[in-house]
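Researcher: Sequence recovery benchmark, item below. Answer with residues only.
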């Protein structure tokens, strides 16, 4: 615990000294707060930019797959490539495609090469995947599903994607997790920042002439007010001061003091403890010294008696 009290001046000799915040503690908490804030900012960046861009790329790839399947389906149903490629009501179409019966039928026919609607079903499955990608982005809107020139759009997408790697699809959970990381980290960082301000606002003072220790609430205690100095959490820089019942405002209470957050506080408490409770060794020496003196004075002079 002594690492916080390496000041050149001995704090107990300073009259009415104020305890400043411990710079080591403040620096450590500030760095931790900054790291947590940066992790939250990283989550915000992923949720608002990186992941949506990945989702948009996957939606473009899914659109290319849809147009390819739509053109192939044209051999089963002539004119479908031009006639049914655009989706004027994407929300309704999304709901229809995800109806259990429709979804099961399309998936089954798309995998059955002998089905009379194999190519059309494959087109509808590709359409479902495309709409699903748009829904994650919040783009389930006609402006994103209207294709004025399917042939030209297909050629453009084919040039972009036929040699490119398929991007990873984006799920709702991806975005939710990143937003949660941002919310949790920024909340924790805010709480830690507020905690630093609260600790900084605490004021401890010490009057060495009267050995009076002033707490942040304005109460003053002296060695005569101490019933016990409990160091059960001394390794964690926490000390508990049990106050005598005779104290005007804190009588019978136990005050917890963090001796690491402020400089000098540890020395002031130790000085009060030394005054209120002299060490056992001092008491033992004081008690045994007179006894030894009396024993020596009462010892008989054996040499004299022998003579």
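Model:
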């Amino acid at each position: 615990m002594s690492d916080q009290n390496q000041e050149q001046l001995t704090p107990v000799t300073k009259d009415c000294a104020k305890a400043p915040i411990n710079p080591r503690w403040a620096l450590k908490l500030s760095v931790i707060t900054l790291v947590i804030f940066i992790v939250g900012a990283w989550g915000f960046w992923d949720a608002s930019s990186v992941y949506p861009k990945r989702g948009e790329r996957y939606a473009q790839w899914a659109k290319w797959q849809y147009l390819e399947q739509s053109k192939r389906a044209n051999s089963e149903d002539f004119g479908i490539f031009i006639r049914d490629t655009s989706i004027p009501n994407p929300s309704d179409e999304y709901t229809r495609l995800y109806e259990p019966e429709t979804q099961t039928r399309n998936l089954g026919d798309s995998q059955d090469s002998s089905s009379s609607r194999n190519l059309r079903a494959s087109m509808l499955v590709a359409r479902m995947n495309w709409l699903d990608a748009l829904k994650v982005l919040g783009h389930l809107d006609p402006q994103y599903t209207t294709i004025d020139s399917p042939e030209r759009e297909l050629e453009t997408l084919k040039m972009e994607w036929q040699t490119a790697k398929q991007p990873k699809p984006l799920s709702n959970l991806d975005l939710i997790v990143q937003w949660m990381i941002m919310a949790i980290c920024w909340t924790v960082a805010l709480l830690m920042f507020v905690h630093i301000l609260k600790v900084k606002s605490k004021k401890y003072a010490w009057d060495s002439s009267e050995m009076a220790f002033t707490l942040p609430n304005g109460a003053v205690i002296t060695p005569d007010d101490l019933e016990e100095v409990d160091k059960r959490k001394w390794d964690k820089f926490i000390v508990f001061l049990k106050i005598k019942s005779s104290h005007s405002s804190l009588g019978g209470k136990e005050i917890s003091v963090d001796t690491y957050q402020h400089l000098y506080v540890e020395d002031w408490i130790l000085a009060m403890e030394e005054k209120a409770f002299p060490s056992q060794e001092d008491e033992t020496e004081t008690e045994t010294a007179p006894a030894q003196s009396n024993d020596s004075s009462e010892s008989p002079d054996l040499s004299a008696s022998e003579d």
